[in-house]
């Protein structure tokens, strides 16, 4: 089976925009996750934490958590089912470092 090239698929790849993995984000880039807003009926804190968890490396997530708390957000806010964010991600196979970061930041359950 032949793999189609980007050109054959109609995908444009900009040569000046290479994907960079492992580079630290600025404080402004990390703080941008605090601006996320939930859909109707969703917990604000849960939504913000979920977006940051999905989008940040552990080192940046740790910095984010300090900003999150400084803005007065609650690490132990529950979702509609009564689960905290820490409880929700504890079962994720690759989440151990994030779980530890949450606990270090003061999340309790």
Question: Which descriptors would you attach to this protein?
Answer:
single chain; 109 residues; mainly alpha; 6 helices; globular
Structural class of the helix and strand makeup? mainly alpha
How far is the first residue's CA from the last residue's CA? 50 Å
- DSSP helix fraction: 40-55%
Tally of individual helices: 6
Biggest sheet, open or closed, and with what strands and sense?
none
Q: What would the average pLDDT be, to the nearest integer?
A: 86
The count of domains is: 1
Question: How does this structure look, described?
Answer:
With 109 residues, this protein is mostly helical. The protein has one domain. The chain is 45% helix and 0% strand. It contains six helices and no strands. The longest helix has 13 residues, at 58-70. The model is unreliable at 11-15 (pLDDT under 50).
Describe the secondary-structure layout.
Blueprint: H1 6-9, H2 27-31, H3 44-55, H4 58-70, H5 85-89, H6 96-105
Helix pairs in contact: 4-6
Brief overview:
The chain is built from six helices and no strands. The protein has helices at residues 6-9, 27-31, 44-55, 58-70, 85-89, 96-105.
């Amino acid at each position: 089976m032949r793999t189609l090239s980007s050109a054959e698929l109609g995908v444009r790849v900009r040569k000046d925009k290479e994907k960079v993995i492992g580079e630290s984000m600025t404080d402004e880039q990390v703080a941008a996750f605090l601006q996320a807003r939930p859909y109707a009926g969703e917990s604000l804190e849960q939504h913000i934490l979920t977006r940051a968890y999905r989008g940040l490396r552990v080192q940046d997530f740790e910095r984010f958590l300090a900003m999150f708390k400084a803005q007065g957000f609650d690490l132990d806010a529950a979702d509609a089912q009564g689960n905290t964010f820490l409880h929700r991600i504890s079962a994720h196979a690759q989440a151990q470092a994030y779980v530890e970061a949450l606990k270090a930041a003061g999340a309790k359950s």
